[in-house]
Design a protein that fits this description.
Elements lengths: L7 H10 L14 H23 L6 H4 L11 H12 L3 E4 L24 H13 L18 E4 L1
GO molecular function: sialyltransferase activity
InterPro entries: Glyco_trans_29, GT29-like_sf
Keywords: Glycoprotein, Glycosyltransferase, Golgi apparatus, Membrane, Signal-anchor, Transferase, Transmembrane, Transmembrane helix
Amino acid sequence: MYVSRPEHLLHVLACNATATPAAPFRLLLTDARLDALCARVAKYYSLRRFVAATGEPASVWTRRRDGRDPYFHYSSGLQAVVMALGVCDQVSMFGFGKKAGVKHHYHTNRSKETEVHDYEGEYQFYGDLQTRPEAVPFLGEAPGFVLPPVKLYW
């Protein structure tokens, strides 16, 4: 589980307090370094998209965000992809992107996407991973890291 708001820590505490020997499944928090990398990637692509679409400086992005909740966070899908980039020899992505009327998550009836994620920015990141991996920022900063090939199946 990743903590994107302070109240998420309460969920972790509540769930972990109910673990028993018969059901010992506890929530684990993701590593803060993974969270920081995901946040950098998501914000970079969102800022780049904002500047290209509006012509305004990046400093306006946090104040505006199209009048929506100024809170912003990457999706769990982006986090899963970044994790896979670090542990897999190649990454195949299925189920990213969405047609009108399709549910947001397979396990809910919600069709509207949450406003705290910039899915279009994340889709640009996924596209760059496949077609222009050299253009993806931040991932090559770790010495010896080699980005694996990525294939999208929209």
